[in-house]
Each structure stands twice: as structure tokens, then as C-alpha cells.
Design goal:
The chain is about 10% helix and about 5% strand. It has 3 helices and 7 strands. The strands form 2 sheets. It has a 5-stranded parallel sheet with strand order 3-4-5-6-7, with no helix packed on it.
Length: about 300
């Protein structure tokens, strides 16, 4: 009986997700049309939803871990405290969406579109986001620890307080991005562009910046202690004068750094503590079995 109930629930979930926002439900041939409401909760782990039109959908406390949404249309969608860990959203379009405290750990977001997206306090650790486009997005306090960011575009993105430690971000673009208080420790940023970026209070300790472009980047109180910037481009003495280094800092020929009385480990702890990442949302409890006399979804009327 439990197996049969599970099958029915999955079938109903697939039916609902497949319906476009403009779909209509009829209770009888004479009844008025009632628009469907694309609001999803409950458990849809490992659902196959590739290429589905979910424009403007709402995901609230939902478990879509391991779900497959390759190339799906999720523009203007709303994601709230939901679990998409290990999900495949490669090539999906999440432009103009709102993502609040959502878990995308180990998810595949390669070549996804996230322009103008609000992704505040969300988890992208160990995710593959290579080639994704975050232009004009906001990812304040987001956790990208150990994420793959090769060629990812963060142009004009707000990454205040973000955790970018140990990321692989070869040739990523952070042009004119805001990285105030961001942690970039031990990241791989070879060939990345930080042109015009705001790096005030950011921590670069242990990062690899060979070939990175820092032209016109703001570096007030940026910690470059122990960082090798000797093969970086675009740096001038005024930027280095604003930053804080030490005797282990390596700079392009002709530039010199001064030491600051700043404890890098304290900065890292304070930044992570101030912008603590939310715990991944637990999978919600399964819904009650449907009545044997009512096995069809009822559309929610729009008032």
C-alpha cells in the first residue's frame, strides 16, 4: 500500500510540475476555468524535470535533492529554505529569481543563467558553476567553498561577505563586483578579472592570482599577507598602500607593501561568524496519503 501511495504522489507531482503557468483545470464542462498555482513543497527528490517550464514557480521548504532540471525555465522563480543538494540544473535559466537560504551543495549549475538573481545566504559549496552567468546578481553571505567557478561571470555581482575559499575560478570574471569582507583564501584565481572590483576588507591569503587583473580595483584594508601577486596585472602603488601585507607578500617589480596590525585568522573568523551560513534544510516529512476518493490535484484559485 505504501509503495502504491508513493507512486501516486510522484505521478501527481510530475503532473503538477509539467503543467505550465497558463494551464487551466476544470471541475466539469460547465465550470469556470481556474488557473493553477505553481507552488511546490514536500518531497520531490530525484524528480526528472528537465526542460520544464516553471516560470515564476514557488519552492517553499521543498526537497528537490538530486532532482534533474537540465535546461528548465525557472525565470522569476522563488526559492525559500529548500534543498537542491546534488541537483542537476545545468543550462537552466534562473534569471530574476529569488533564492533565500537554499542548499545547492554539490549541485550542477554549469552554464546556468542567474542574471539579476537574488541568492542571499545560500549554499553553493562543492557545486559545479563553471560557465554560469551571475551578472548583476546578489549573493551576499553565500557559501561557495570549494565550488568550481571556471569562467563563471560575476560581473557587477554583490558578493559581500561571501565565502570563496578554495574555489577553482580560473578566468572567472569579477569585473566591478562587490567583494567587501569576502574570504578568497586558498582559491585558484589564475587569469581572473577583478577590474574595478571592490575588495575592501577581503582576505586573499593563500590564493593563486597568477595573471589576474586588478586594474582600478579598490583594496582598502584588503589582506594580502602571504599572497604572491608578482604575476598579477594592473596593480599600482596606491592600491598596495591601501592594502595590508607582510614580509611574505610578493608584488610586481617596483611595488612595495606595508604591514598592518591585522590578524588574518581573526578577520576570517569574524567574517564567517558575521555571515554564518544557514544549515542545509532537512527533507520535509512526506505528505499524508491521498484519499482513495480524491486522487486528483485541485487547482488553487488566483484571487
Amino acid at each position: 500500500m505504501a509503495k502504491k501511495t508513493s507512486y501516486i504522489l510522484m505521478a501527481l507531482a510530475a503532473l503538477t510540475l509539467a503543467a505550465p503557468a497558463a494551464a487551466r483545470a476544470h471541475t466539469s464542462s460547465n465550470d469556470k476555468e481556474v488557473p493553477r498555482s505553481n507552488t511546490f513543497g514536500g518531497d520531490c527528490a530525484k524528480c526528472e524535470l528537465s526542460g520544464r517550464r516553471l516560470h515564476g514557480a514557488h519552492f517553499m521548504n521543498a526537497n528537490f535533492s538530486g532532482a534533474i532540471l537540465v535546461g528548465s525555465d525557472l525565470r522569476e522563480a522563488h526559492f525559500l529554505t529548500s534543498n537542491f543538494a546534488g541537483a542537476d540544473l545545468s543550462g537552466a535559466d534562473l534569471s530574476d529569481s529569488q533564492i533565500i537560504a537554499v542548499n545547492f551543495a554539490s549541485a550542477n549549475l554549469s552554464h546556468a543563467k542567474l542574471r539579476d538573481t537574488q541568492a542571499v545566504s545560500s549554499i553553493f559549496s562543492d557545486a559545479n558553476m563553471s560557465g554560469a552567468n551571475f551578472t548583476d546578481a546578489s549573493a551576499q553571505m553565500a557559501n561557495f567553498n570549494q565550488a568550481q567557478l571556471v569562467g563563471t561571470i560575476f560581473r557587477s555581482t554583490d558578493l559581500t561577505g561571501a565565502n570563496l575559499s578554495r574555489v577553482v575560478a580560473h578566468k572567472a570574471e569579477f569585473r566591478e563586483a562587490t567583494l567587501r569582507g569576502a574570504v578568497l583564501t586558498y582559491g585558484r584565481f589564475e587569469g581572473a578579472s577583478f577590474r574595478g572590483a571592490e575588495l575592501d576588507g577581503a582576505v586573499l591569503q593563500g590564493g593563486n592570482f597568477d595573471g589576474a587583473d586588478f586594474k582600478e580595483a579598490e583594496m582598502h584594508h584588503t589582506s594580502i599577507a602571504g599572497v604572491d601577486l608578482s604575476r598579477a596585472h594592473g596593480l599600482v602603488q596606491d592600491q598596495i598602500d591601501d592594502a595590508c601585507g607582510d614580509s611574505r607578500t610578493r608584488l610586481p617589480k617596483g611595488l612595495t607593501v606595508h604591514s598592518c596590525s591585522i590578524n588574518v585568522q581573526t578577520i576570517i573568523r569574524q567574517t564567517i561568524s558575521r555571515h554564518a551560513m544557514p544549515a542545509p534544510p532537512a527533507p520535509p516529512a512526506p505528505p499524508a496519503p491521498p484519499s482513495p476518493y480524491n486522487r486528483y490535484l485541485v487547482a488553487v484559485p488566483t484571487l
